[in-house]
Amino acid sequence: MTVDFKNLPDNSRIWIYQCNRKLADLEVEQIQTKTQSFLEQWTAHGSNLEAGFEIRYNRFIVIGLNQANASASGCSIDASVHFIQSLESEFKVDLLDKMNVTFYNGIYISYKTLAEFKKMVKARSVSKNTVVFNNLVTTKAEYLLDWEVPMSESWHNRFL
User: Fold this and answer.
1) What's the predicted TM-score (pTM) here?
2) What is the separation, in whole angstroms, between the first and last Cα of the chain?
3) Using one digit for the tens of pLDDT, what is the confidence trace for 41-86?
């Protein structure tokens, strides 16, 4: 069962999938349709899951799950990963590699490998005030408060 992402409770579990490139508007529309269809049939042990999603900045697919009614099981999480893999294949993008960093570079959003990002820190091309996307947040409340934060307030600060 799908719900508007905004209506999910703050303690909802979330998964963030960052894209290695900005998606075209048409791709976003297609991904929205496919994600809606997937979430409508997403279940755990035969129980419908109350889930919602949003696509931010044409780069991030954020899936939220209200666990008050039913929690994701290993099989349902596997199903969601397979769904994301199907998007990767269809749209020729990388959504599952967690070893990359997405951050604001002025008004633009940049995506770099962790090694490239470390070099940028060392060269002082980014600073403790550079806003990064902390995709390790696990609840909607954390997502709303701690997703876009200065590097000094994220796990990225270990590179400073």
Assistant:
1) 0.93
2) 43
3) 997 777 788 999 999 999 999 999 998 877 777 888 899 999 999 9
On whether the CB atoms of residues 14 and 63 are closer than 8 A, the answer is yes
Average pLDDT over residues 14-26: 97
Q: b or e along 85-123 (b: 16 or more beta carbons within 10 Å of the residue's beta carbon)? A: eebbeebebebeeeebbbbeeeeebebbeeeebbebbee
| Cα 76 from Cα 119, distance rounded (Å) | 38
In the 3-class helix/strand/coil scheme, how is the chain assigned residue by residue?
Answer: CECCHHHCCCCCEEEEEECCCCCCHHHHHHHHHHHHHHHHHCEECCEECEEEEEEECCCEEEEEEECCCCCCCHHHHHHHHHHHHHHHHHHCCCCCCCCEEEEEECCEEEEEEHHHHHHHHHCCCCCCCCEEECCCCCEHHHHHHHCEEEHHHCHHHHHC
Buried residues in 147-157 as b, exposed as e (16+ CB within 10 A): bbbebeebebe
Q: CA 10, CA 19: separation in Å to the nearest integer?
A: 24
